[in-house]
Amino acid sequence: MNDAERINAILQHTGLNGKRFAGRIGLRSPDSIYHIQRGRNRISANMAERIVMAFPEVDKAWLMTGRGEMLLPGAAGTAGTTTDHRRLALFDPARHEAATRPAETAANLQQVPLYDFEAVAGLVPIFTNQNRPIDYISIPDLPRCDGAVYVRGDSMYPLLKSGDIVMYKQIQDYYNIIWGEMYLISFAYEGEEYITVKFIKKVDDHPDRVLLVSHNPHHAPKEIPVAAIRALALVKASIRFNTMG
After folding, report:
1. Confidence class of residue 108 from pLDDT cuts 50, 70 and 90?
2. What angle do CA 32, 33, 34 make, to 5 degrees?
3. Residue 185 and residue 33: Cα distance in Å, rounded?
4. 31 neighbors 20 (Cβ within 8 angstroms)
5. Is the alpha carbon torsion for 238, 239, 242, 245 positive or negative?
6. Interval 134-143: pLDDT, tens
7. What SS3 state is found at 219?
8. pLDDT of 191 above 70
9. What are the tens digits of pLDDT across the range 10-33?
10. What does the pLDDT read at residue 75?
11. Neighbours of 71 (CB within 10 A)
12. Looking at residue 34, what DSSP letter applies?
């Protein structure tokens, strides 16, 4: 079992995604976790120490070498019990409800992959299945979605704020836009790639151009050529967290 597989095994054991796991072990950013998952880095001694401090049931020697078992003797049942107060905090009512529904209902519950586009170079790797999701989202009666990402910036505030999640449906034909709807868009401008959520409006007499409009009045509309669009998706739903933890 390599380092990436061991990290993924611990994430499965704890029930946390990469971002939340990084927070639990005291990291400011989940980037180091993502790099290990992608095989770019190995588990360092410092990382192993952080993990066993947060999750004392994990064997540090296994973390560093892959030899032996993930859990220390006597801790094998930890992941399956709720006697530990720390484990109680990991209980997810939504997952529990999905798991206890009749089989035909649970099977039909959509699992929408959640991606971190900041861990890769834009939306294109996500839209072309070159990036692995960091988690999955299930919401009853959700319209069919291809994926979800976190919102960055305040251009759609207060409709959306930084840290919200938008769930999207990819658009293949950039000339088949529903004018006035909200889109997740990646476009090239002066040698840079920009990723944003905007309303897209029609530019009269210029079918080869579109107008990107913010909900926040402090952001001016921006006109771009359709040819500059690198990835486009219709926003189908959004999720907002109203607490800090």
Report:
1. low
2. 90
3. 27
4. no
5. negative
6. 889 998 888 8
7. coil
8. yes
9. 999 988 898 888 888 888 788 889
10. 64
11. 17
12. H
Dist CA 8 CA 6 (whole Å):
5
Other CB atoms within 10 Å distance of the CB of residue 225: 14
pLDDT for 241 equals: 79
DSSP class per residue in 148-172: EEE--SSTTTTTS-TT-EEEEEE-S
Q: Residue 115 and residue 124: Cα distance in Å, rounded? A: 12
In one-letter notation, the amino acid at residue 219 is H
Q: Answer whether 0.85 is exceeded by the pTM.
A: no
Residue 140 is encoded by which pair of tokens?
Answer: 């009853």
DSSP 207: T
CA 35 to chain centre: 15
Residue range 30-89, pLDDT digits in tens: 888 988 998 888 999 888 988 988 888 999 999 999 999 999 887 644 443 333 333 333
The 3-class secondary structure across 101-126, one letter per residue, is CCHHHHHHCCCEEEECHHHCCCCHHH
Residue type, 55: F
32 residue type, one letter: S
CA distance 205 to 16: 51
Residue 241 CA to residue 53 CA, distance in Å, equals 28
DSSP one-letter string for 47-111: HHHHHHHH-TTB-HHHHHH--S-SBPTT-TTGGG---SHHHHTT--HHHHHHHHS-HHHHHHS--
Phi, psi angles (nearest 5°) of residue 49: -65, -40
